[in-house]
């Protein structure tokens, strides 16, 4: 069943259909939020809020829209709000989060790669991080990202390039350090 | 493939590694969604608007479930009596408020905890724990339920969901799980 069909059933009152959409998109949402916020627990809260908001807003969903970009638009807004809260908390407590520790360790070699990416993204501001993650991580087209974030395509291309250059430089430094 | 493409692939692979505990997080999201949905249904007061994709005429469901409850309670009581377990009697008792006290009995060898989830408690595995009977394998809970059709399941050790083997299943699986059905009505008697 396609997303559009599941949405149609959910709009008709079938919560099971919406659960099917959750099953299909939850992992992507959690991954995005974890990389945006650098905090696994906060990411889970944000994803729950996003899904509830989407469920309550199904009446405003237009059939011509695709579900995933629509859901990600809500998710991006929730992440921005949560990032603002987290920033305020950090200012109040003067305690720096450690993004490397926030994305939980796998018992596989993947930990090294993920840890490196997480550390390489440290210090990247929200708009650049958002553009980079949506483009390179989620593989969305620039037009889709523009609809999700509200930014123009040229601005997004610039953000992705800057983010990529910065992350890659830091990544290669970390890789070099790991080999020593 | 040039160096830029290779780096993009490595970064993408790092990004796309699954987040630990994603499945549990997804289950928690679905529970919260079900609570939200249950609140909405309660607001509408329409218990037959199925919470979990149920597609059965309420009257037919009532007959089926009542029959299974009678047989299940009778045989379950016999089974428990043969093992020295005090059977919950009566299994269903009408309360003055119009709701009915229903006794749920579930056999789960090796379980350390069992709980009951259903539309009546927002599918919350922490809300309704069952008590272990003296034999250790039988778990019991008595729950007041409003009259109407209810979907429910048991959760073993907070992880594994299982339908009630003594009750009919909802004809449509929800998120890969089949729940059991129960009708509670004023005219029921055992």
UniProtKB/TrEMBL annotation, chain A:
Q: Which InterPro entries match?
A: RNA_pol_sigma-70-like (IPR039425), RNA_pol_sigma-70_dom (IPR014284), RNA_pol_sigma70_ECF_CS (IPR000838), RNA_pol_sigma70_r2 (IPR007627), RNA_pol_sigma70_r4_t2 (IPR013249), RNA_pol_sigma_r2 (IPR013325), RNA_pol_sigma_r3/r4-like (IPR013324), WH-like_DNA-bd_sf (IPR036388)
Q: Which PROSITE patterns match?
A: SIGMA70_ECF (PS01063)
Molecular function (GO) terms listed?
DNA binding; sigma factor activity
Can the keyword Acyltransferase be found in this entry's annotation?
no
Q: Do you know which Pfam families this protein is assigned to?
A: Sigma70_r2 (PF04542), Sigma70_r4_2 (PF08281)
| Assigned keywords, A-Z | DNA-binding, Sigma factor, Transcription, Transcription regulation
Picking any one GO biological process from the record gives:
DNA-templated transcription initiation
Residue ranges of the RNA polymerase sigma factor 70 region 4 type domain?
Answer: 116-166
**Cited SUPFAM superfamilies:** Sigma2 domain of RNA polymerase sigma factors, Sigma3 and sigma4 domains of RNA polymerase sigma factors
Tell me which residues make up the RNA polymerase sigma-70 region domain: 21-83
- Does the entry feature the keyword DNA-binding, yes or no? yes
- Family in the record: Belongs to the sigma-70 factor family. ECF subfamily.
PANTHER family xref list: RNA POLYMERASE ECF-TYPE SIGMA FACTO, RNA POLYMERASE SIGMA FACTOR HI_1459-RELATED
Output this protein's name.
Answer: RNA polymerase sigma factor
Classification of source organism: Bacteria, Candidatus Eiseniibacteriota
UniProtKB/TrEMBL annotation, chain B:
What Pfam families does UniProt report for this protein, alphabetically? CBM_48 (PF02922)
| Positions of transmembrane segments | 59-81
One of the entry's Gene Ontology molecular-function terms is: hydrolase activity, hydrolyzing O-glycosyl compounds
Q: Which residues form the Glycoside hydrolase family 13 N-terminal domain?
A: 100-160
InterPro entries, per database record = Glyco_hydro_13_N (IPR004193), Ig-like_fold (IPR013783), Ig_E-set (IPR014756)
Q: Which domain of life is it from?
A: Bacteria
Protein's name in the database: Glycoside hydrolase family 13 N-terminal domain-containing protein
Natural source organism: Eiseniibacteriota bacterium
Q: What is the lineage of its organism?
A: Bacteria, Candidatus Eiseniibacteriota
